[in-house]
Fold this sequence. Notes:
SNS_sf; transmembrane; Hydantoin permease; 18 helices; binds phenylalanine; mainly alpha; binds sodium ion
Amino acid sequence: xxxxxxxxxxxxxxxxxxxxxxxxxxxxxxxxxxxxxxxxxxxxxxxxxxxxxxxxxxxxxxxxxxxxxxxxxxxxxxxxxxxxxxxxxxxxxxxxxxxxxxxxxxxxxxxxxxxxxxxxxxxxxxxxxxxxxxxxxxxxxxxxxxxxxxxxxxxxxxxxxxxxxxxxxxxxxxxxxxxxxxxxxxxxxxxxxxxxxxxxxxxxxxxxxxxxxxxxxxxxxxxxxxxxxxxxxxxxxxxxxxxxxxxxxxxxxxxxxxxxxxxxxxxxxxxxxxxxxxxxxxxxxxxxxxxxxxxxxxxxxxxxxxxxxxxxxxxxxxxxxxxxxxxxxxxxxxxxxxxxxxxxxxxxxxxxxxxxxxxxxxxxxxxxxxxxxxxxxxxxxxxxxxxxxxxxxxxxxxxxxxxxxxxxxxxxxxxxxxxxxxxxxxxxxxxxxx
Length: 434
Ligand code: PHE
Ligand code: NA
């Protein structure tokens, strides 16, 4: 149970509430949504299972896992990509977590008196709603310190409590907000953009949205960074991996789609469009709308408080990757490892917090590519190094349906999905005329 909570806590985060609406808006709305959902089912679920199999089989962090299971140091070196990915992820995630934390801390004051306007960096610009200022640096550091404290204290209890509060609270708040958003002027245009799917648009945009859709699917499911490998090292042999992977994907997708039902109607009612809303979308729509709500201050505080929890249960899973690597492989003490990695991210994150262009690159293409490459590595490992052992692990603790699915699954993760991911990677890098 602790494991499932931790994995759901890692998956559900800013990827669902902040990144999903923004990336969906930038890629044309409904056509993107459909491709994204298909990738979650066809790549996401089998992909989670790949990381689970590696983690439970080895009982280790990604570096140790690849080395032990293959008996070769070279695979251990390949696994170190995860460490880099963890640091890159946290370097921008902590900045966004900082913006959220700032809205949480200051919404009581600001929304009650001044409205959300003081937060809007440069109204109408791409980064409307967020600010690349020294305040952003301060809140980034504060968010990182919170993350480090939880990881330092031993993450198990923290995650369990956090997730038990966060999941019901976030569902309740999002449902309430979605109902309220549906009553706002121009909400219909938001639904239209988000949900009205037509084949012609899909066909015209298919190859353009493939890369971003795959990137978003991996990001939101915490895939390709080794998080699921690490967490799965704690799964008992009696649990069904396919069942757990599906549960995580369903819950995570539900929160994402629901967040869209809040953000899009509000975006269209506040700004009249979604296309150029960018990373500030959540802040513009939600904070702007809260200011108009009766008891908006209170709801804003509750909302940003819950989102802060969701962000923390994800950021600790990012920090845990390099920390468990340093502790397991080099026998660092936990405090030193946490302090060292957090110290590094104070610097890298602060640069992101001040440089919009760099931030945009790290939060988008860089992280997308790292996660894609990471997942390709894990899945090729499952297919070509573990092979039948992977099938064995896949079946352990699950029923007859899993037995039937295990062989097709191995083919998918060993061949089809890596091919597909290489293709999306090349197309998002703009290579090969794709
Ligand atoms: N899945 C998390 C979210 O949606 C982000 C994440 C990515 C966490 C990769 C860990 C590893 O916010
Ligand atoms: Na997510």
